[in-house]
Structures are given as structure tokens and as C-alpha cells.
């Protein structure tokens, strides 16, 4: 089968990989329909985070081709969403809802596990990992939003949940990448009254507004901090979503959060060395977030996608096929694209 291959920084190519087969009775083999490139894939692409040479990609939806003898709840021909981390559903962390820290879990596209940016993927612990999508014949628009549930929408949601967004909250979203934009969707969905999106890119500003942002701030750094404080009568926001992971974005999120509130951090930290004393303890601000437990969030968000209450698939503003997967990375690396979609297989069948 053909798949995207990571050959080192700035070297993504399509190549041949062995056809995945059932290794363990809890495995399933999934034929990928749609996949996409993650902001975290860009860290590997740029050589700023390590990645094994070989398979890459961890966000995909597809059709189950084969299941092992112990797989329950998933059957051949099911149309499924794969959360970006597989999990057993039974360990203490899974039972607590933190499926992203499953003691038997792991991520796709690294450490010998097939990547999502390929024609076929072996999914470990398939019965507790894959989420079947009801119905069939979904529109392309719905399909794109279902793909967004594999990671980006769940990650934006995790930022909102971690920061404690609730009915009537004043929220700031730091970051206008696909995760930040999904954070806007999530904040609105949880009832935020005011959503301040930090963005200086006009198309992203427009999408943030469509998703529910009430205010757009083009400022950065101290200017952004001062502007948010001014907009909130010097108080700060009830919840800040940190969706970038740089030293400046984390410092901004911590500084604009009102005492007694939380920053929901989901950006992959690079060069962050905020002082816990000055930014958290002495300001009475909290910090939580981390790797989104996508498997725990997908069922709730899936209902909203199928009812067209949310449309996170709009973050895909570039698309190509597996042959041109390198272009999918380049478009994001150049910031020409918010998020790249890769069309791989035929449309879903479903139950
Ligand atoms: Zn991802
Ligand atoms: Zn687990």
C-alpha cells in the first residue's frame, strides 16, 4: 500500500509500505478515506521535534476492512473516526476520561504504528479506539467535519473545557491556527458570551467571526495583553485558550486571565519557560490542558456535527491527494493553508 513517508526534516514523500494485517486479536485494519496534516506534524517537518523515519500522520477517517477475533463494537464496513491516540478504554486513566494517557495507548504514525496519511492503517485496541459514525452517504461538508473530530476539533474543545468556559464566560483564544479556530467553536458551543480571538490574518479573522468570535485583536505580546485588559475593564478574561505553544503565546494567555481562572493549554510547548511563581501562583491563575482525550470527546461532538450545529471542517482550506502529500505540508509550512486535507480513498460505505 502507499503512504506518506517521513524521511527527515522537509522530506515527506509518498512511498510503499507493507500492507497492514491483523497482528493482535484486538486489531482492526482500516482503509483510509480522508486524512490531514496536523500542526504538530509541522514541528517534525521543520525538524523542531523528533520523529521516527517512516510512517507519519495521526488524523484519519475510513472504512473498517477487517477486525480481529476479540474486537467488539466495530465490524467490517463500519465507517469510523480514529482518535489520534489509541486506547484500551479500561485502564484508570481511560476510566477517568483521560484516554490520551492510556497505559496501553499510543499515537499513530510513530514507534512502529502505521501513520494516518496512508491508504491502510492497522488500528490497535480497535474496539475501544474507533468511533463508528451512524448513517451513510454523508455530504462532503460533513465528511470534512468528521475528519476534524480525529484531533483538531477535540483539541480546541479540550482547551475550552480545560480553561473552564461556561455559560456567559468572557473568553480569549490565543492562536488562529486550526486548533485556535476550533477553540472558538468550542467556546461558543459551551455558551461563552464574548470570545476575543487573537489573529492578524484576515481570512482567519473572518473564519473566527463565522465560528463565533465577537472581537478580533491583531495585537501581539504586551500590546495584546494591554488590549485585552482594556476590553475587560482591567480584569482579564474568565478563560484563556492557549493554542500555539510558543513562549510569547503562553505568556500572553497567562497574563490576560483574571485571578481565579484557568488557562487551557493545548499548544505543543516550544521555548516556554514561564515562571510558575510570577505567572501562576502569585496571580491565582491555573494552568491545565495537555493532550486532548479525543476518544472521550468524539461521541458528544459527533452528534453536533451530524446535526450541523458545528462545522469544524471549514478549517480545511487546502486539499490534495496522497501523491501530492508533500504539497499539503508545504502549504501549511508557508502558512498558505490553515490546514491541509488529503483525499485518499473512496467515499465511505457505513452501516
Ligand atoms: Zn494532530
Ligand atoms: Zn486506557
What brief labels describe this structure?
25% strand; binds zinc ion; six-stranded parallel sheet; Quinone Oxidoreductase, Chain A, domain 1; 12 helices; 351 residues; alpha/beta; 2 domains
CATH fold call of the largest domain? Quinone Oxidoreductase, Chain A, domain 1
Sketch the topology as an H/E string, one letter per element: EEEHEEEEHEEHEHHEHEHEHEHEHEHEHE
| Main beta-sheet strand count, sense and barrel state | 7 strands, mixed
In total, how many domains does the architecture comprise? 2
- Count all strands and give the number: 18
Rg value = 20 Å
Based on secondary structure, the structural category is alpha/beta
Task: Quote the average pLDDT.
Answer: 96
CATH class membership of the largest domain = Alpha Beta
Helix content: 25-40%
> Which term fits the overall shape?
globular
The assembly state of the depicted protein chains is single chain
Could you explain how this protein is built, in words?
The chain has 351 residues and is α/β, with parallel strands linked by helices. 30% of the residues lie in helices and 25% in strands. The strands form four sheets. Strands 3, 5, 6, 9, 10, 17 and 18 form a seven-stranded mixed sheet that branches. A six-stranded parallel sheet has the order 13-12-11-14-15-16, sandwiched between helices. The longest helix is centred in the last third of the chain and has 13 residues, at 294-306. It starts with a strand and ends in an 8-residue tail after the last strand. 52% of the residues are buried. Bound molecules: zinc ion (2 copies). One zinc ion binds at residues 38, 40, 58-59, 84, 151. Residues 87-88, 91, 93-94, 102-105 line the site of one zinc ion.
Amino acid at each position: 500500500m502507499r503512504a506518506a513517508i517521513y524521511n527527515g526534516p522537509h522530506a515527506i514523500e509518498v512511498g510503499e509500505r507493507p500492507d497492514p494485517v491483523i497482528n493482535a486479536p484486538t486489531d482492526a485494519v482500516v482503509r483510509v478515506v480522508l486524512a490531514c496534516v496536523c500542526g504538530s506534524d509541522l514541528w517534525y517537518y521543520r525538524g523542531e521535534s523528533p520523529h521516527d523515519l517512516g510512517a507519519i500522520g495521526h488524523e484519519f477517517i475510513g472504512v473498517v476492512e477487517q477486525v480481529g477475533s476479540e474486537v467488539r463494537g466495530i465490524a467490517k464496513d463500519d465507517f469510523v473516526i480514529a482518535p489520534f491516540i489509541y486506547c484500551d478504554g479500561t485502564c484508570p486513566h481511560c476510566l477517568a476520561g483521560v484516554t490520551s494517557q492510556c497505559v496501553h495507548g499510543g499515537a499513530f504514525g510513530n514507534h512502529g504504528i502505521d501513520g494516518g496519511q496512508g491508504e491502510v492503517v492497522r488500528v490497535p485496541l480497535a474496539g475501544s479506539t474507533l468511533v463508528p459514525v451512524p448513517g451513510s452517504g454523508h455530504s462532503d461538508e460533513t465528511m470534512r467535519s468528521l475528519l476534524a473530530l480525529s484531533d483538531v476539533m477535540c483539541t480546541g474543545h479540550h482547551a475550552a473545557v480545560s480553561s473552564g468556559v461556561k455559560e456567559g464566560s468572557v473568553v480569549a483564544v490565543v492562536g488562529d491556527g486550526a486548533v485556535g479556530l476550533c477553540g472558538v467553536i468550542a467556546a461558543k458551543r459551551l455558551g461563552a458570551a464574548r470570545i476575543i480571538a487573537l489573529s492578524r490574518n484576515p481570512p482567519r479573522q473572518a473564519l473566527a467571526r463565522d465560528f463565533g468570535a465577537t472581537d478580533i485583536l491583531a495585537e501581539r505580546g504586551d500590546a495584546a495583553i494591554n488590549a485585552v485588559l482594556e476590553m475587560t475593564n482591567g480584569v482579564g478574561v474568565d478563560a484563556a485558550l492557549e493554542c500555539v505553544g510558543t513562549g510569547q503565546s503562553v505568556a500572553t494567555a497567562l497574563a490576560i486571565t483574571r485571578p481565579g481562572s484557568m488557562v487551557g493549554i493545548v499548544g505543543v510547548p516550544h521555548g516556554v519557560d514561564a515562571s510558575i511563581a510570577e505567572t501562576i501562583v502569585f496571580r491565582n491563575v491555573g494552568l491545565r490542558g495537555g493532550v486532548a482525550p479525543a476518544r472521550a470527546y468524539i461521541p458528544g461532538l459527533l452528534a453536533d456535527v451530524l446535526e450541523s450545529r458545528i462545522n469544524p471542517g471549514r478549517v480545511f482550506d487546502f486539499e490534495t491527494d496522497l501523491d501530492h502529500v508533500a504539497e499539503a505540508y508545504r502549504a501549511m509550512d508557508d502558512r498558505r493553508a490553515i490546514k491541509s486535507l488529503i483525499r485518499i480513498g473512496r467515499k465511505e460505505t457505513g452501516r
